[in-house]
Design goal:
With about 525 residues, the chain is α/β, with parallel strands linked by helices. The chain contains 19 helices and 17 strands. The longest helix has 18 residues. The two termini are about 45 Å apart.
Length: about 525
């Protein structure tokens, strides 16, 4: 038999098909992350065409801003970028080659907001003439998730020197369990350059996270330009460690094109010493630089100006107003603030409540719903606006109290979902259940989801990726995948998470090994898949 005949037999073996339905045991052997709601697959393989194309006929989404086309190109690029593609698919029988992907989006809108439909259906047939994969989605953002799932079933084949689509035919029906699946980055403790933030956003799409919580400012620095109050960024570490207003607009636009909302946070009244570098009147005194001066009307005028500027670029329905770790003792010992407290019949804790509620009213006037850290609920929950989302971080048991009170909640309990806690292992990230002890369906619906937090006292551009990944991916599956599809024992999904970590590495994301503490280096020489 000649070489041409042997190649024909080899290529046919690559595409021989046995169709099966995925049961629980099969799902454990699929290398998709996060696990979809419903999956069926076969045992066949198809070659990805060198001219793989996007078709959108029949779609109501015009893609005027290029969201879909750019996502398609990114998806194909990450699949092809791991190796040089040597296979010439034009010389292969067309019945063995996947020619392209046909995406139909039913909504013409590109609006991205909390609660946007992110569901999709993906079908990759084993037979057809010509052969096209198919994605259907209500919105373009669901289609983006479908493209990501498709990219994870495409792999470089060392024998053919091309890309194979494994385990065809595929049918995936998928949607997220929670509408809020967040990651917090902190640009006050350490400045993160814009390209680094963009790279974090790209990596979030691989795990289907959909909210970048941007903790922009804090005690240490105020790096963001605020046009209404241009001296605020005098509180930055240096002139080069600043974000222009255009930078912030670009980050929001970049994230939107990837299906990610940006949640902006200003933490008030505490964690705000840096504000007074440019505007010293915000400090109660030279010896008391935070909390912000509750007695000064300028404080609230400035907050109003910040949120007015925010409303021009941060279009997510929520704004985060912080409210945590407020020590009011210096209010009570600073003479002019003490005089104001006495005049208004307030003690320190009551002034804290006054400040938070007044800041909430300002945010509401700019069209935002509010997110506050849980101390506000713990101290005066009944007084909070009914448009408040309480952000749990101190520990367990808070979410159930919040939803009992009829308020919404986001879960980030620090013992499980703080990425800067390097002793918080991936198993805990995976097992942390936002609905613990919440059984009433109406109360469960008030839990918007959860968020992993990368507080940056010890995180800069040199270690941010390995601090986030792969532990954030463990939480991402908890937030995406139906509860009954989640592993009760995290060790059962370890090999699949390890595979995803290696996929991140192949895509240029510096994800750390699973073994050991967070962002720990490999312990010994060995395969990526065994670390």
């Amino acid at each position: 038999m000649g070489r041409e005949g042997l190649e024909t037999i080899f290529l046919w073996c690559l595409v021989c098909v046995v169709v099966i339905s995925a049961n629980a045991a099969d799902i454990n052997h699929l290398n998709i992350w996060p696990m979809p709601k419903s999956v069926s697959y076969g045992y066949g393989n198809l070659h990805l065409s060198n001219e793989f194309e996007l078709r959108t006929d029949g779609s109501k989404f015009a893609d005027a801003s290029g969201i879909l086309k750019e996502a398609f190109l990114r998806s194909i690029n990450v699949v092809r970028s791991t190796h040089v593609i040597e296979l010439n698919t034009s010389k292969i029988d067309p019945s063995l080659v996947l020619k392209g992907i046909h995406v139909v989006v039913f909504s013409p809108s590109d609006e991205l907001q909390h609660g946007t439909d992110e569901s999709y259906k993906l079908h990759v047939p084993a037979q057809g003439s010509p052969l096209y994969a198919h994605i259907e989605a209500q919105t373009v953002y669901g289609a983006l998730h479908g493209l990501e799932t498709f990219s994870q079933v495409c792999h470089y084949n060392i024998s053919s020197r091309g890309i194979l689509v494994h385990q065809v035919p595929w049918t995936v029906v998928d949607q997220p369990r929670f509408s809020y699946r967040g990651l917090l980055i902190d640009t006050s403790r350490h400045y993160q350059p814009v390209p680094v933030i963009k790279k974090v956003i790209d990596s979030m799409t691989y795990a289907k996270l959909n909210v970048l919580h941007w903790h922009i400012v804090d005690t240490q620095s105020f790096p963001l330009e605020i046009p209404s109050y241009p001296k605020l960024w005098d509180g930055a570490y240096s002139i080069s460690e600043r974000y222009t207003f255009a930078d912030a607009e670009e980050i929001v636009s970049y994230a939107k094109k990837r299906g990610i909302n940006v949640l902006a946070e200003i933490d008030v009244p505490g964690h705000a010493e840096s504000w007074g570098v440019g505007y010293p009147a915000l400090w109660p005194s030279a010896d008391c630089k935070q909390p912000l001066d509750v007695s000064n009307e300028f404080t609230f005028k400035l907050i109003d100006g910040i949120l007015s500027d925010f409303s021009k670029i941060f279009k997510y329905k929520f704004v985060h107003l912080g409210g945590d770790e407020v020590n009011t003792s210096c209010w009570e010992t600073t003479p002019h603030v003490q005089k104001w407290l006495h005049k208004n019949g307030l003690n320190g804790s009551e002034a804290y409540q006054y400040f938070v509620l007044r800041a909430q009213k300002i945010a509401l006037s700019h069209g935002y719903d509010i997110i506050n850290w849980e101390e506000t609920f713990n101290n005066f929950g009944s007084k909070l606006s009914r448009k408040t989302v309480v952000h749990n971080w101190l520990g367990g048991g808070v979410a159930q109290e919040v939803v009992k009170a009829g308020l919404r909640c986001i879960v980030s309990n620090q013992d499980k979902w703080y990425l800067d806690h390097l002793d918080a292992l991936w198993q805990g990230f995976y097992s942390n259940e936002p609905l613990t002890n919440i059984t009433d369906p109406k109360q469960q619906a008030l839990v918007l989801g959860g968020e992993v937090c990368a507080w940056a006292e010890h995180i800069d551009e040199s270690d941010i990726e390995q601090t986030i990944w792969p532990r954030a991916a463990a939480a991402a599956e908890r937030l995406w995948t139906p509860y009954d599809k989640l592993a009760k024992d995290p060790e059962k999904i370890k090999s699949r998470l390890s595979y995803f970590r290696c996929l991140l590495n192949q895509r240029g994301v510096a994800a750390a090994p699973l073994d050991g503490f967070g962002r720990e280096a490999p312990q010994d020489p060995g395969s990526c898949y065994l670390q």
